[in-house]
Write a structure and sequence with these properties.
It contains 15 helices and 37 strands. By secondary structure, it is α+β, with helices and mostly antiparallel strands. The protein starts with a helix and ends in a 5-residue tail after the last strand.
Length: 690
């Protein structure tokens, strides 16, 4: 009798809640999420924005060694919900962020009676979905089948898919142009490439409507990174999990996977302005965040890439990280108000095959004296831990190394993972756990972390805001030791890599053709010519473009990457780097075409001032900048840093002009961006005299 009653109640519940297909709308009603079970018991979804089905019916699911959660599933429950809050990040592009969504949570049962939940949150700016495996014990996840069947042959900006590297060229093709041949063009070199795969964030545009979307992931914990495998026949991306292991991740139950995210908007700028990836992460877990300070910094760094000096002490080049040389940078930082000085090459172990010691300085680097000297001048020393991908060696020393920095009074560290990791990939589960452990352990020692050669960012900086930035793209350094980045690389980054989170691009190179560097290096070689390093490369942008990067590229730490002597030759341009903030109250991408140009405005978090940056590709553009975002009834002092009349990345890159005028929100400033050029604009609110 009890069993019959139980079955009757169960059937009644299923009839009342299992109304499939199910749909929810975003809070503003512009997006619609459709969910259903196919005839084969396969969970599937589609996503419509402004009436356009951007993602057509796409299958969902995952598999473990025990259960196939991709087909033969039956519906147990459907739960709808909504959520609305505002929260304040420790630092960011916005001082307040609204977290507002409608949700759909379905519970499915496998043939074995095991349950899987699929949670879907639909925001005004996109969709996040994840899997929750219920139960007890351990599950061994072997694959994931999250699909993205695209609604058209979209215009796409993408990078070759790898589970071991993210420093490739971005390609601009239709989706149908993703082929093994174009992947090789993107990668240039092969390391962990996935056949017909792309990395995320992947940015796309519908040619029919101009709607934009970007696919990525959020809250990556205890799980491999995601790569997308493209099938042109079905016009579908399928999720692949990084790593060579058959079992991709063993997890304790219950377990929630990372979120699969689709940001949507009716213009390119919507991708820049979205906070959805942050909203899908847990709130901050650090109780006292007062020690986490956004800053601009300088460093003993660029001179090593150009071989004015070098990291190790090989006798061929001068050693960079000497007490005397670092003091020179500290003096420069103190003179211009930069908060920190990064020092690479300070510790024993530089040279391939050697094991780093993270608590042992070279004899010519007096860390105690430098911390004292910097502190007296209001500057902090920024530490550096390169691993050469010897992660086991780093794991063994991390606790001691972080405690060493804490005891010395060093509050920030840049880490690096150049090379191939033994038995692992940069994006597999083991390395994801390692990267996340460095951030959590660093927080215990009040260390801010900037990771180079990282797993791609997924918004965990909301939970641990001491993760202040990361690399994960071809940054400025690529101009120093090869042909550099393509001319459309920089106008692509805000909509791809920077969508994932803050990026340490290292902007602000002023000696764009290395003229000063050539002269300095030549003096150290026989005959006045450095034959080993002939400086045939250069930065393919104008100086005004370099200034604009401080606004267009987002990071709460920004480097003034060039050498002090090169900045002193351009004091007016240097003033913009001195003035521009790194922490913002609000951000607006005013106009953009991905890969062509972008114009972004940001309001300072700590004043009423605005800053605008614009950059372009190899095409010269005249741009009419409307100042309607300014406060009504107020006057502003505008200082414009623009390309000079002869400027161009391939002609006279350091030709720039500085113009000043008074403006209001009714004004329009017409500015010319040279080839590879740009502009930077400071708008200081004028306070009336009483």
């Amino acid at each position: 009798m009890k069993r019959l009653l139980y079955l009757a109640v169960s059937l009644l519940l299923m009839v009342s809640c299992a109304k499939l297909p199910s749909e929810i709308c975003s809070p503003d009603g512009r997006s619609v999420l459709h969910f259903e079970l196919t005839d084969l018991g396969e969970p599937a979804y589609s996503l419509t924005f402004d009436g356009e089905e951007l993602v057509q019916l796409s299958r969902l699911g995952l598999t473990t060694t025990d259960v196939d959660f991709t087909r033969g599933l039956r519906l147990v429950d459907v739960e709808r919900g909504s959520f609305d809050e505002c929260w304040e990040p420790v630092w960011g592009q916005f001082s307040k962020i609204r977290n507002n969504y409608n949700s759909l949570r379905v519970t499915l049962s496998s043939a074995e009676g095991r349950e899987l939940e699929i949670e879907m949150r639909l925001f005004d700016d996109g969709l996040g979905l994840r899997y929750i495996i219920q139960g007890e014990g351990v599950a061994a996840i072997t694959s994931e089948r999250t699909e993205f069947t695209m609604g058209g042959d979209y215009d796409a900006h993408w990078m070759a898919g790898s589970d071991d590297d993210a420093e490739f060229d971005y390609m601009h093709t239709q989706l149908s142009g993703i082929t093994p041949e174009t992947m090789q063009q993107s990668a240039g070199r092969v390391r962990g490439l996935v056949e017909c795969g792309v990395s995320t964030p992947l940015a796309m545009k519908s040619s029919d409507t101009g709607n934009h979307l970007a696919i990525h992931e959020a809250a990556l914990w205890h799980y491999p990174g995601m790569i997308l495998a493209w099938d042109n026949a079905s016009r579908c991306f399928t999720t692949l999990l990084a790593g060579d292991q058959e079992i991709k991740s063993e997890v304790e139950l219950p377990f929630s996977t990372p979120w699969r995210t689709i940001i949507v908007g009716d213009r390119a700028g919507a991708l820049v302005e979205s906070s959805m990836i942050l909203n899908l992460n847990e709130p901050c877990k650090i109780e006292d965040t007062s020690w986490i300070k956004p800053m601009k910094y300088v460093g003993v760094w660029w001179e090593m890439h150009l071989k004015v000096s070098i990291w190790d002490r090989d006798g061929k080049y001068p050693h960079s990280a000497t007490t005397e040389n670092v003091k020179r940078y500290i003096d420069f930082a103190a003179e211009y108000g930069f908060g920190g000085v990064l020092v690479e090459g300070w510790n024993v172990g530089w040279g391939w095959g050697e094991r780093f010691d993270y608590s042992q300085p070279y004899p010519d680097f007096d860390i105690d004296e430098l911390v004292r000297y910097a502190s007296e001048r209001g500057v902090e020393l920024i530490g550096h831990h390169e691993t050469y991908a010897n992660v086991e060696n780093y794991n063994a020393q991390m606790e001691e190394a972080y405690a060493y920095y804490e005891e010395k009074g060093v509050h920030s560290v840049k880490t690096g993972y150049v090379g191939s990791i033994a038995d692992h990939k940069h994006y597999d589960r083991w390395m994801v756990d390692h990267y996340n452990r460095t951030v959590m352990l660093a927080a215990e020692h009040k260390l801010a972390v900037d990771i180079h050669e990282p797993i791609h960012s997924t918004g965990i900086c909301r939970t641990y805001p001491n993760l202040v930035s990361a690399e994960g793209m071809r940054g400025q350094e690529w101009h120093a030791w090869n042909a550099g980045n393509s001319i459309d690389h920089n106008p692509t980054l805000p909509f791809t890599r920077n969508v994932a989170g803050p990026m340490d691009f290292t902007p602000g190179i002023f000696d764009l053709r290395y003229h000063n560097t050539i002269n300095k290096a030549a003096a150290t070689t026989d005959g006045g010519v450095n034959k080993e390093y002939d400086y045939k490369f250069f930065v393919n942008s104008t100086l005004a473009h370099q200034l604009a990067q401080y606004v267009v590229f987002y990071s709460p730490i920004q480097m003034a990457a060039d050498m002090p002597e090169n900045y002193r030759e351009h004091p007016e341009a240097l003033q913009f780097i001195v003035d521009v903030p790194v922490d913002w109250a609000t951000t607006r991408c005013l106009d953009a075409e991905i890969g062509d140009y972008v114009v972004t405005a940001r309001k300072d978090k700590h004043s009423e001032d605005w800053y605008v940056g614009g950059i372009t590709d190899g095409e010269m553009r005249a741009y009419d900048l409307a100042l309607s975002f300014l406060e009504e009834g107020c006057a502003y002092e505008a200082t414009l840093y623009r390309d000079g009349d002869s400027a161009g990345w391939d002609t006279y890159p350091t030709d720039y002009c500085v113009e000043r005028r008074s403006v209001t929100r009714d004004d329009v400033i017409t500015v010319r961006m040279a080839k590879g050029g740009g502009f930077a604009l400071q708008l200081r609110k004028v306070v009336p005299q009483e």
